[in-house]
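no rush on this but wanted to send it before i forget. theres a chain ive been looking at and ive put its sequence and its fold in C-alpha cell form underneath. please have a look and point out which stretches look like helix strand or loop to you. thanks a lot i owe you, the record is right below:
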Amino acid sequence: MATYLIDYENVHQNGLDGIKKLGEGDTVIIFVGNKIDSVSVDTLMAIINSEAQVRIKKMRKTADNYLDFQLATCLGGLVASGAGATGSAGSEHSEYYIVSNDRDFESVIDYWKHNKPSAKIELRSAIAPAAKQAAATKDRGTKKNTAAADASGAAGGGAAGGGVAGGRATGSKVADSGGAGGGAAGSRENAPKKASSSITDSVKKRISKVLPRYSLAGGNYTKIYNIVVKHLSKDSFLASIKSSYPGDKYKQLANELLPAFEEQLKSKQEQ
C-alpha cells in the first residue's frame, strides 16, 4: 500500500500519470492551489476511474510555498502515524511519494530518513515510476510526431518539417505547437544535456516555480535549463525563449524566467 501526495500546482495533470495502475490499497492526496479552478475531462475521468482512494485538498489561501508547507505537514502526520489518506493509525502505509518537480522537498525526505528509516519516502515527477513515465511519454511523442511528419510530408513544407524535428527533441505538446515558426529554433536551442548540469540549484528552483503555470513539464525543463546556461546576454535569452515558445499563451514566459537567467549569469561571471 502506498500514499501519493500530489503537488498539483507544480506538476498539473502530468503528475497523475500512472493513477490508472493503482489499486484499492493505495491512496492519493491531490493538493490544489487556490488559482486552479478547473481540470481537463481526461484528468477528471482518470481520477474517477482509479481504484485508489482519492482525496482532494483545495488551498484556501495564496502565499509563497503555502501549498508546499501544507503538503509537508500532511506527510509528517501520515508518516508518524503510519496511516494513508483515508486509513487509520497502524494501517501500515510504509511507502510515501511526493509528486512534484520542486527539489526543496528533499529536505523533508532527509528528515524522515533519519527519524523513521522504516518509511520509504521518494520524490518523483509523476505517480508512475520515472522509467515507466519516460517510456509512456516517448511512446506518445513518437505517435504524435509520426502523424505530424506525415502531414508535413504531404504538404511539402520544409519549415514545418523543422517544427516536427523540434517536437521530437522535447517530446512535448508545447514544442509541437512551435510548428513551422519555432520548431527549428527550438531544436537549435536544445544544446547537449550536459550543459544543464552547470545550472545552480537556486536557478532550477526559480524555473520550477514558473513552468507549471504554463503547464510545461518533461523535456521542457531540460530545454529551458540549456537556454539559460547557453546565453550570455539578456536580449539573446529573451529572444530565444520567445522563439521557442511563440503565441499569446507564452507571452509573459520570457519575462518571468528573466530573474532566473540573471541569477545564473551572475553566478557564471563570479566563477
